[in-house]
Amino acid sequence: MRLPCGLWLWLSLLKVLQGQTPSPPPLPPPVQNFQGNQFQGEWFVLGLAGNSFRLEHRALLNPFTATFELSDNGRFEVWNAMTRGQHCDTWSYVLIPAAQPGQFTVDHGVEPGADREETRVVDSDYTQFALMLSRRHTSNLAVLRISLLGRSWLLPPGTLDQFICLSRAQGLSDDNIVFPDVTGWSPQASVC
């Protein structure tokens, strides 16, 4: 059975266009002289940027925390907690150190053959802010995520600009940047 000419042309064009997919920009290096013992502890996630985020996702992001606990083998156990109404959503993973300090592979604790994810601390002063960049490789897509972390809700001057510039340097637009909706939010230790 022959394929109709239009379908054959469309499939051929699709194959050609897949071969011309632009390569993603190179990832910035991890922060120099990464200090895991200073990085550990609780961080507020103050902003996220990623190629999977859209404008409509802004209303879905509630404030949440990420707690990094450094183990003796150099791994970080990471726990996230986000309040949604009167309940708490939590998730966790392990950061396994890579060859370069401040760079990690992510172990989500799932079966072998799961998507590979790499993450790195791009910048941090350890006491006020941190910028992390993550790239997860799926079978046909690289999912990029940049996290703006703060020890409190107050960031040093220029940090937000640095976050936005890093996002743009990775080919993201302002539509790919989301911030938690803090309207009416207050920390509720009893919930999380």
TrEMBL record:
The keyword DNA-binding does not apply. It holds the Pfam family Lipocalin. It comes from the Eukaryota. PROSITE patterns: LIPOCALIN. Residues 40-183 form the Lipocalin/cytosolic fatty-acid binding domain. GO terms for cellular component: extracellular space. GO terms for molecular function: small molecule binding. The keyword Transport applies. Residues 1-19 form the signal peptide. Its main location: secreted. It is found in: Secreted. Keywords: Disulfide bond, Secreted, Signal, Transport. Belongs to the calycin superfamily. Lipocalin family. Binds all-trans retinoic acid and may act as a retinoid carrier protein within the epididymis. May play a role in male fertility. Monomer. This is Epididymal-specific lipocalin-12.
